[in-house]
């Protein structure tokens, strides 16, 4: 398992084989509260970095999830349709959202590393 | 109506307690209030249905009308039967406009020598201004900005509070009276806005925090925020002013004709009577209905509603996930031909049609102490 990278929109990215797995951070799931539904993108969709491509619905509100990097959606987490609470319980494991085939692997390296992301979160408090 | 916290927000007498309890403060109707505590909206909602939840509703407007003719003065602004309300009883009513729209929904109670009023926070300046401008000689309006309002809701609420307020357990739904609880003068009504049994308690602001701590120490009581309050009232099929009812909607369209007194429906002497009378005789163009989306995707307020042919026939006014129902729920207005229970609709969520059906409300049965 490779190192995780993070976006300022509170998504994490983990490179694995031919793709990159993307989800939302523990900070994000905590801020959203109980997740009751996740609207995932269609496999095959090509997305730009920063493009809204999923929606996470908590009891209270709907929030966009952005593609942290450009590329093609190659897989979505089907387990979330039956158990959206995975996002709260295991945000960086079983609660992943989708996998992207990156258009440019360099985009991942340019994201925040763990230390920089935690510093960013602390700066929001 | 949820805004980001800012320095311009007013605080309730319980602000320090909310922060101490870990409340996530948000702006609501000009006040900083807890959206939720660390337990979260889902847990707070379910706890209210199972035991008892304490809500701070001090942002709401409290006042009293005093003097000979107070009931008649209020009846000039509402279609509710105020004059016929017995001492020790509370009622739900609407303030209506001359064109038949709803200016606010509110509670009024007969406290014997005066009428106690509770109005929505976002409408209190409007409502109290309107009422004050319509008072005859000898009737006066006294705002209670020096009082807090707490709602203790759930099946465990009255059993817990009855230890401190003997006599309360004998109240039925919408009963109201004054109690002395450890030196605190409390006006307690057996009412609320969650669909559960419970009480709303008006206490002096300076004693509110200690009083709230006392309630939180009762067995089975936990604090709950605005998020749970909203999901509870939606499951109970109750309207939120500004979302489900407003100046454009009538009592008939909103399904609130029950709040119009029988006598008032013979006299037709309330603001907007002409529209209400016409809609009762000929049917309104649209009706507020309950909606159950298929699947798990919630449809929020302002989601367009389409009929079978794809034409837009209405709009969701409140929608979300019902923790006790275990599924998404919504309410909204649809053109009258689509208002029958079981009618198939499409909710246009982010451009995609989510199939749904018109469904009876409440979504979760009321459990008032009738």
Summed up:
Chain A is α+β, with helices and mostly antiparallel strands and 125 residues long. Chain A has five helices and nine strands; from the N terminus they run E-E-E-H-E-E-E-E-E-H-H-E-H-H. Chain A has one domain: Beta Barrel (OB fold (Dihydrolipoamide Acetyltransferase, E2P)).
For CATH, the homologous superfamily of the domain at 2-57 and 145-235 in chain B is named as: Probable tRNA modification gtpase trme, domain 1
Architecture (CATH level 2) name of chain A:
Beta Barrel
Looking at how many chains there are and whether they match, the oligomeric state comes to heterodimer
Order of helices and strands of chain B: EEHEEHEEHEEEHEEHEEEHEHHHEEEEEE
Walk me through what this model shows.
The complex is a heterodimer of chains A (125) and B (370). Chain A has 125 residues and is of the alpha+beta class. Chain A has one domain: RNA polymerase II/Efflux pump adaptor protein, barrel-sandwich hybrid domain (OB fold (Dihydrolipoamide Acetyltransferase, E2P)), CATH 2.40.50.100. Helix content of chain A is 24%, strand content 36%. In chain A, the strands form 2 sheets. A 6-stranded antiparallel beta sheet of chain A has the order 1-2-3-9-8-5. In chain B, 51% of the residues are buried. Chain B has 370 residues and is α+β, with helices and mostly antiparallel strands. In chain B, a hairpin with a 3-residue loop joins β8 (102-110) and β9 (114-119). Chain B is globular and about 65 Å long. Chain B has helices at 15-20, 41-50, 70-75, 124-133, 157-161, 205-216, 226-235, 264-267, 273-282; strands at 2-3, 10-11, 24-28, 31-36, 52-56, 61-66, 90-96, 102-110, 114-119, 140-143, 147-153, 176-181, 184-189, 198-204, 221-223, 286-293, 304-306, 312-322, 327-335, 344-349, 352-359. Chain B contains 9 helices and 21 strands. Among the domains of chain B are: 2-57 and 145-235, Gyrase A, domain 2 (2-Layer Sandwich), CATH 3.30.1360; 285-359, Aminomethyltransferase beta-barrel domains (Elongation Factor Tu (Ef-tu), domain 3, Beta Barrel). In chain B, the strands form 4 sheets. A 6-stranded mixed beta sheet of chain B has the order 12-13-14-11-5-15. A 6-stranded antiparallel beta barrel of chain B has the order 16-19-18-17-20-21. Chain B has a 5-stranded antiparallel beta sheet with strand order 7-8-9-6-10, with helices on one face. Chain A binds chain B through residues 33-34, 36-37, 39, 55, 57-62, 81, 84, and chain B through 35-36, 40-42, 45, 227, 230-231, 296-298, 300, 320-321, 323, 328, 350.
């Amino acid at each position: 398992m490779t190192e995780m990278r993070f976006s300022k929109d509170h998504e994490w990215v983990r490179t694995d084989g031919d793709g990159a797995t993307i989800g939302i951070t523990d900070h994000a799931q905590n801020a959203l509260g109980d997740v009751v539904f996740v609207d995932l993108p269609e496999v095959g969709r090509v997305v730009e970095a920063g493009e809204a491509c999923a929606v996470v619905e908590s009891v209270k509100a709907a929030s966009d999830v952005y593609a942290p990097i450009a590329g093609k959606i190659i897989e979505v987490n089907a387990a979330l349709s039956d158990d959206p609470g995975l996002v709260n319980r295991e945000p960086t494991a079983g609660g992943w959202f989708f996998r992207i085939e990156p258009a440019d692997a360099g985009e991942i390296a340019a994201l925040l590393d763990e230390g920089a992301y935690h510093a960013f979160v602390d700066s929001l408090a | 109506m949820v805004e980001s916290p800012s320095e311009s927000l007013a605080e309730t007498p319980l602000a320090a307690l909310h922060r101490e309890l870990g409340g996530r403060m948000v702006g609501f109707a000009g006040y900083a209030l807890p959206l939720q505590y660390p337990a979260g909206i889902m847990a707070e909602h379910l706890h209210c249905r199972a035991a008892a939840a304490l809500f701070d509703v001090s942002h709401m407007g409290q006042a009293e009308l005093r003097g000979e003719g107070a009931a008649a003065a209020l009846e000039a602004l509402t279609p509710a039967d105020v004059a016929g309300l017995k001492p020790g009883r509370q009622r739900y009513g609407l303030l209506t406009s001359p064109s038949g729209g709803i200016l606010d929904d509110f509670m009024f109670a007969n406290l014997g020598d005066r009428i106690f009023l509770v109005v929505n926070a976002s409408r209190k300046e409007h409502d109290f201004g309107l009422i004050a401008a319509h008072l005859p000689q000898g009737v006066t309006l006294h705002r209670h900005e020096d009082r807090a309002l707490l709602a203790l809701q759930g099946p465990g609420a009255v059993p817990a509070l009855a230890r401190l307020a003997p006599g309360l357990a004998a109240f039925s739904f919408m009963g109201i009276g004054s109690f002395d609880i450890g030196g605190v003068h409390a006006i307690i009504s057996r009412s609320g806005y969650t669909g559960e049994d419970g009480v709303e308690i008006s206490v002096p602001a300076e004693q509110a925090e200690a009083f709230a701590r006392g309630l939180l120490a009762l067995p089975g009581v936990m604090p709950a925020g605005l998020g749970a309050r909203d999901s509870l009232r939606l499951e109970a099929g109750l309207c939120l002013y500004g979302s489900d009812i407003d100046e454009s909607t009538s009592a008939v369209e909103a399904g609130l004709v029950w709040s119009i007194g029988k006598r008032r429906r013979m006299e037709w002497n309330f603001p907007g009577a002409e529209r209400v009378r016409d809609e009762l005789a000929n049917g309104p163009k649209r009706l507020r209905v309950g909606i159950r989306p298929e699947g798990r995707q919630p449809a929020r307020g302002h989601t367009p509603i389409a009929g079978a042919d794809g034409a837009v026939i209405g709009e969701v006014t409140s929608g979300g996930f019902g923790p006790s129902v275990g599924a998404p729920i919504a309410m909204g207005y649809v053109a009258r031909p689509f208002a029958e229970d079981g009618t198939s609709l499409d909710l246009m969520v982010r451009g995609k049609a989510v199939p749904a059906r018109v469904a009876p409300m409440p979504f979760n049965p009321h459990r008032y102490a009738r």
